[in-house]
Design a protein that fits this description.
The complex is a heterodimer of chains A (501) and B (609).
Chain A: H1 2-20, E1 29-30, E2 37-38, E3 45-47, E4 55-57, E5 63-69, E6 75-80, E7 84-85, H2 89-98, E8 101-109, E9 115-117, E10 121-126, E11 133-139, E12 150-155, E13 161-166, E14 174-181, E15 184-193, E16 198-203, E17 206-211, E18 224-226, E19 232-244, E20 252-265, E21 270-272, E22 282-288, E23 294-300, H3 307-310, E24 314-321, E25 326-334, H4 336-339, E26 342-348, E27 354-360, E28 373-378, E29 383-386, E30 395-400, E31 406-411, E32 420-425, E33 436-437, H5 445-448, E34 452-459, H6 466-473, E35 478-479, E36 481-482
Parallel strand pairs in A: 1-9, 3-10, 17-35, 21-36
Antiparallel strand pairs in A: 2-4, 4-7, 5-6, 5-8, 8-9, 8-10, 11-12, 11-34, 12-13, 14-15, 15-16, 16-17, 18-19, 19-20, 20-21, 22-23, 23-24, 24-25, 26-27, 27-28, 28-29, 30-31, 31-32, 32-33
Chain B: H1 2-26, H2 28-35, H3 43-46, H4 55-65, H5 71-94, H6 102-115, H7 124-140, H8 145-163, H9 165-182, H10 188-209, H11 215-220, H12 236-254, H13 257-262, H14 270-292, H15 295-308, H16 312-318, H17 327-340, H18 343-346, H19 367-380, H20 383-396, H21 401-414, H22 417-427, H23 434-445, H24 448-452, H25 454-462, H26 473-483, H27 488-500, H28 504-509, H29 524-537, H30 551-566, H31 571-582, H32 586-593, H33 595-598
Helix pairs in contact in B: 1-5, 1-6, 2-15, 5-6, 5-7, 5-12, 6-12, 6-14, 7-8, 7-9, 8-9, 8-10, 9-10, 9-12, 15-17, 16-17, 19-20, 20-21, 21-22, 21-25, 22-23, 26-27, 30-31, 31-32
Classes of the chains: A mainly beta (501), B mainly alpha (609).
């Protein structure tokens, strides 16, 4: 009896193996179209250090063969009766290291026993690496309530994902706005809301919780931008509200009643500002220039009933001298009234050449607006253009790699609902290439995963302060001071705005 | 032989009785319905359970909880866990050759059954105790003390990761008693002390260096992480269930005399003492039933299930008001009446003590109202608002099958087939919904099927596409009627809203569209409102041709006024007499029951944050 069952087992194994290793044979029909694969990894430019781009073949078949190769050297051959293509990390890295092009050949056998060979997929391999970690918040699609939420870091060279902060280690509090100084994992901040409220700043191997609300600022610090010197952080302070819509492409409107800008000094724990960025207009989304001499931000007119939601934001900049705390006067770089665009999330490239922003038809919270697209501004001549590879769905929050060649941004192009992180190569002329979604071990990941990637930020290494951040969150927040040298009377009505009113 | 047979019969009767009780009275399907245990055969779902101690047991419990969809399977799972615990206790204590009696055998099973009186009770809790007990039993089997010591210590680590802090404590305590039962020797002291120290140290050390959780959770996390409205709150019975195991083992260890005296299974006076024990078990069960069985809670869960299955007639039949009621009871009753077309006729036949809040429950954004609000707006055809609420629900319970189903239908209505397909793929991971998924998957490949589906086609017709959804319920209903003036449910809800808020002028101004929504005569509450409005305004409101006020109601209104004026406007004095004849009218509601008069407010509501 035992022998019989053993024989049966062997036969089954042989059958299984043979069905998994079938070679294309017979009259193979050549197709002049590329095969459909998911995620779409065809015609893209990939960094040399990216993890294997696992995918599945979206062509009906009973057997599949895939060959992944460069111009020369090793090849990866995968034969299976399943459409999933799971690539060996070792061979993959070898191909990427030694080639400039990546070819994917796919054969599919239909149930009628006919083999098809599809047109070869060709991708370009860039020898310029992307920063090896990506940090993002994972959140659900709700707007008011939340349950599990956390900030995670993903190693882009493999599939490792680790928690940076999970609200399971607090009291299910909200956590947001993680930000890094020059993509440095050792110098960062994030906000905690509700329970354990405050801003955790990680610097010099320490994590400390600060309360950035002062008697002269309307709220705690909100949207951040680290100055390149690693001491200062520009923030907006905002009174934010929400409205809901029946438009499935824009289900929620986030708008500010008022907003201003402040600068927080992480060394002196002091908040400062100036009248020019604390006007009755709504200044928001600060971003330092690469050299730290200018602060870019967006600005919309003062709120009235009709403009609360439908205002358009212009791109503005103001000079700032760190040594003397001296502010210049502001300049409008892109006027919303001239362009019809409402600008948001300005982000300067580390080489100082470009600024990428998202723009839509109104407001600044573009991550919920399907009309949001990415634009690139040439800082040498202030000319701007839409990135070539925007989609019909939301393309929004973006982050530059330290070498200014790569950018990660969120896009809802896969299903119209969930934000996914896409990588695009930006060449020296500011031209973008077809973006690709960050690879996952399980090629079905994006089909089944029901959380949004929020605020993807590229960093140059792994954050190792997760336990320190958690422990800092348990301590009482240290109150920030307001800069005594600032003439309070110089502050606008907006900054003096009493939140209780 | 006779003795063994009798024991088997008694135990079998006990288990069958409990089984019938669980299946017929408790009904595991209701646990499934309210908890909507999510489960996916995918690493995406599994991986988060690896990130905290006890996650693996939570994962297992979610897998098993799916089977509560079938009453019999849920019953079997509960009984199996209970019986396994009892048998393991027997197994651990057996070495001392003390036969545990019926009471001690049945105690864990009865206590476990009692825990399931609460429909939020998560299966993970008893599973953790069961796993701890299996570990005790397994390690205790090792006869070599050194090997046992090593395996016991390693088990602490493993058990902590698999089942969490409470399971580790349960293991430590029961393990110490178990080895003492096995060998009453001072040599076990080092082993015992080590296990205790490990059970204290492991949670702290892993909290400090490995797991990103709170210290409290490192030691005491016992239940699943759930949103507040599904959170199970521990009761004394939970502590009793955990404590009863070491107590039984302790009784065995101490060889308590009185227990020995009432042991039945190897005594000549088996019958008498056996009967006494059976009586004690019955009495104990009765006491627990009396103390912990919450009929009201079951009614609420049943009501929600009936609404989910659209058993509107049953809801109207079952909802009874006994003074203390939940807002969702009257909300679902109103909804059921609307589906049956009787809302406007019977609006005041039951106490509308919370006014229009019982029509539109979303005054406060809380987890509890997310699904009911989404369901209501789906019924009304306000898909944008249904979508808004179901995404709030999805945030709290991401993979809930009920939530996924609503998302799929909403996206189909929106013509967002890519998103609908995505949720179908997720739901398809759950074996219970294959047929449902198959049905709607066809709608993705052939989108004309949506238009052929009466329900979805109707919602498309009703669905407004307003850019900003108003906060005011009446504005929402007006938006729906502007989109489609034949939307009867929206009309009924709007008019009911006006009546419940005493807005008779607004109500009267909408009567000219009665026929468009299908009325050929005035429903009861409308007649009452109109009589009052006409009296107040001293005008006769124009009605669509062929519609008039029933004479009986006019007569009733006269009688109401007569009685009221007999008391010279003294509301309090007139109340009793008016209640007897007019307690179920709008007139009485406006004078006495309306929250505008009583200032009634929702007593308590679980607010998430």
């Amino acid at each position: 009896m035992k022998t019989f069952s053993q024989i049966i087992s062997y036969i089954l194994i042989i059958v299984a193996l043979s069905s998994c290793s079938e070679e294309p044979n017979g009259n193979i029909v050549e197709k002049n179209t590329e095969p459909k694969i998911f995620p779409d990894y065809s015609g893209i430019t990939i960094p040399v250090n990216i993890a294997p781009l696992n995918f599945y073949i979206k062509e009906d078949g009973v057997a599949y063969k895939t060959i992944i190769r460069g111009e020369s050297g090793k090849t990866i051959e995968i034969k299976s009766d399943k459409p999933e293509v799971i690539i060996s990390e070792v061979k993959w890295k070898d191909i990427l290291k030694n080639n400039q092009q990546l070819f994917i050949d796919i054969w599919v056998k239909t149930k009628e026993n006919q083999w098809f060979k599809y047109k070869t997929i060709t991708n370009r391999i860039s020898n310029k690496s992307i920063d090896n970690h990506l940090v993002y918040r994972l959140i659900n699609t709700g707007y008011v309530l939340w349950q599990k939420m956390g900030i995670y870091q993903r190693n882009l060279e493999n599939y490792d994902e680790e928690i940076v902060y999970s609200n399971a280690s607090g009291k299910n509090n909200c956590v947001n706005c993680h930000s890094f100084c020059k993509n440095d994992p050792q110098t960062m901040l994030m906000h905690l809301r509700k329970k354990f409220a405050g801003t955790v700043i990680v610097k010099n191997g320490k994590a400390t919780l600060y309360n950035t609300k002062t008697p002269y600022t309307m709220t705690q610090a909100v949207y951040p931008s680290w100055h390149p010197n690693g001491k200062l952080v520009a923030f907006s302070v905002n009174l934010i509200g929400q409205n809901f819509s029946s438009d499935n492409n824009h289900r929620i409107e986030v708008s500010d009643k008022v907003s201003d800008l402040i600068i927080y000094n992480t060394e002196t724990n002091t908040v400062t500002t100036t009248a020019a960025v604390s006007t009755k207009n709504r200044e928001n989304m600060p971003c330092w220039s690469a050299d730290g001499k200018y602060l870019y931000y967006i600005s919309a007119p003062e709120t009235n009933k009709s403009s609360l939601i439908y205002a358009k934001y212009s791109l503005v900049r103001i000079s700032y001298e760190t040594a003397t705390n001296k502010w210049g006067t502001h300049d409008t770089i892109i006027s919303s009234s001239k362009t019809g665009l409402s600008i948001s999330f300005p982000r300067t490239s580390p080489d100082g050449k470009y600024l990428v922003f998202s723009a839509s038809d109104h407001g600044y919270f573009t991550i919920h607006n399907a009309k949001s697209d990415l634009y690139i501004l040439n800082l040498a001549n202030n000319s701007f253009t839409k990135l070539i590879h925007n989609s019909e769905k939301t393309d929004s929050y973006h982050s530059w790699a330290t070498n200014s060649n790569w950018m990660v941004f969120t896009s809802k192009r896969l299903d119209g609902v969930y934000s996914r992180p896409f990588i695009t190569y930006i060449d020296e002329n500011g031209i973008d290439t077809k973006p690709f979604v960050i690879p996952q071990k399980d090629p079905h990941f994006y089909d089944l995963f029901l959380q949004n990637y929020n605020v993807p930020e590229l960093i140059t290494g792994k954050i190792d302060a997760a336990i320190k951040i958690r422990d800092a969150s348990y301590k009482e927040a240290i109150k920030a001071n307001f800069d005594k040298t600032v003439n309070i009377d110089a502050l606008s009505g907006a900054t003096k705005y009493d939140i209780k009113k | 032989m006779l003795k063994n047979k009798s024991i088997t019969v008694i135990v079998a009767i006990l288990l069958i009785s409990l089984g019938l009780f669980i299946e017929l009275i408790i009904n595991p399907l209701l646990h499934y319905h309210i908890q909507q245990p999510p489960f996916l055969w995918s690493n995406i779902f599994f991986n988060p359970f690896l990130l905290y101690p006890g996650g693996l047991t939570d994962y297992l419990s979610l897998f098993l909880s799916q089977f509560f969809f079938f009453k019999w399977a849920g019953t079997l799972i509960i009984l199996l866990i209970g019986v396994s615990i009892s048998l393991l206790i027997r197994g651990i204590a057996k070495n001392k050759s003390i036969t545990l009696d019926l009471i001690l055998f049945s105690l864990p099973i009865i206590l476990l059954t009692t825990l399931f009186f609460n429909y939020k009770f998560p299966l993970t809790a008893p599973l953790k105790i069961l796993i701890a007990l299996i570990a005790v039993y397994g390690v205790n089997k090792i006869s070599n003390r050194t090997i046992r010591f090593i395996v016991g210590s390693a088990t602490c680590l493993l058990l902590y990761y698999v089942s969490g802090g409470i399971a580790l404590f349960a293991f430590a305590i029961n393990y110490i008693i178990a080895i003492l039962i096995k060998e009453k020797s001072t040599k076990t002291i080092i082993e015992s002390v080590t296990i205790v120290l490990l059970s204290l140290a492991i949670p702290y050390i892993t909290f400090k260096f490995i797991f990103l959780i709170t210290l409290n959770n490192a030691y005491f996390k016992y239940y699943l992480d759930t949103p507040l409205f599904l959170t199970y709150k521990a009761q004394i019975i939970d502590y009793m269930f955990v404590a009863v195991i070491p107590l039984i083992l302790l009784s065995s260890l101490l060889n308590i005399k009185w227990l020995k005296q009432i042991q039945v299974f190897n005594e000549p006076t088996f019958k008498v003492k056996g009967l006494i024990q059976v009586a004690v078990v019955i009495l104990l069960s009765y006491l627990l039933l009396n103390t912990y069985y919450n009929k009201k809670e079951k009614q609420l869960v049943q009501l929600d299930y009936d609404a989910y299955t659209e058993n509107w007639t049953k809801i109207v039949k079952d909802v009874k008001f006994d003074g203390n009621f939940d807002i969702l009871e009257i909300f679902q009753l109103n909804r059921a009446q609307a589906h049956l077309g009787t809302l406007t006729n019977d609006l005041f036949r039951y106490p509308q003590l919370l006014g229009s809040e019982s029509l539109f429950p979303e005054t406060f954004t809380t987890g509890q109202i997310t699904i009911p609000a989404s369901d209501l707006y789906f019924d009304l055809g306000y898909i944008g608002n249904s979508q808004r609420w179901i995404y709030e629900a999805q945030t709290l319970t991401p993979y809930s099958p009920r939530v996924l189903k609503r998302l799929i239908l909403n996206h189909l209505i929106y013509r967002n087939y890519t998103a609908a397909d995505k949720y179908l793929k997720v739901l398809n991971q759950n074996f219970l919904y294959k047929d449902w998924v198959n049905k709607y998957s066809k709608y993705i490949t052939d989108t004309t099927l949506v238009d052929n589906d009466n329900l979805l086609a109707e919602k498309r017709r009703y669905m407004p596409n307003d850019s900003i959804i108003s906060d005011m319920p009446n504005d929402k209903m007006k938006t729906l009627l502007n989109q489609c003036n034949t939307n009867k449910m929206a009309y009924d809800y709007l008019q009911s809203y006006y009546l419940l808020n005493h807005m008779l002028g607004d109500f009267a101004s909408r009567l000219n569209t009665l026929k468009e929504v299908g009325y050929s005569n005035l429903p009861n509450s409308f007649e009452q409102a109109l009589l009052l409005y006409n009296l107040k305004t001293e005008k006769k409101t124009e009605l669509p041709e062929g519609i008039s006020i029933n004479k009986n109601n006019a007569e009733l209104f006269n009688n109401f006024n007569k009685i009221f004026y007999q008391y010279k406007g003294n509301r309090e004095a007139a109340q009793r007499e008016l209640y007897q004849s007019f307690g179920q009218t709008l007139w009485y509601y406006i004078l006495y029951d309306s929250p505008k008069v009583t200032n009634a407010k929702i007593e308590s509501r679980a607010v998430e944050y």
